[in-house]
Amino acid sequence: MTADGGWTVIQRRQDGSVDFNQPWEAYKAGFGDPQGEFWLGLEKVHLILGDRDSHLAVKLQDWEGNAESLQFPVRLGGEDTAYSLQVTAPVASKLGATTVTPSGLSLPFSTWDQDHDLHGDKNCAKSLSGGWWFGSCSHSNLNGQYFHSIPRQRQQRKKGIFWKTWRGRYYPLQATTMLIQPTAAEAAS
């Protein structure tokens, strides 16, 4: 699970072999196979990072073989904050920090059975599929439904894995990887 440079892989999607439409307790504990598709677990990620400044790297791949990546500074709260993710500084990238907008806003993690998103009248995890740090349900969801080909129906596509500022809201991605690392200054202390 640990990659070069001290990065820890916390999520991998590549073939649809694992259902990511899981309840809160599964996202808290983790599920899947670290050699294939998996979610490490919110509690494990929080234990690795604590409340320290850290970095989150996101790697994305589309169905044409194109790949993009993004890295941004974050903090992850504990279960008492619903594992809120906060981008701690502005991100200069063509992909943008679409999980959290603007810099400084904390987004709690939501699942279909524990709705913590910022969309007051809707449960984003229930309507889109998969647990995630949802704001308004429309910026990103790397834990959405995996499609083996791109569905024709837009309503179906919106439930897929997406990163709005790269391939758009209705383009389900083929593969994703998320990695974390405490910042160098924090890790040295």
TrEMBL record:
It comes from the Eukaryota. One of its GO terms (cellular component) is extracellular region. It is found in: Secreted. PROSITE patterns: FIBRINOGEN_C_1, FIBRINOGEN_C_2. Its main location: secreted. Residues 1-184 form the Fibrinogen C-terminal domain. This is Angiopoietin like 4. It comes from Phyllostomus discolor (pale spear-nosed bat).
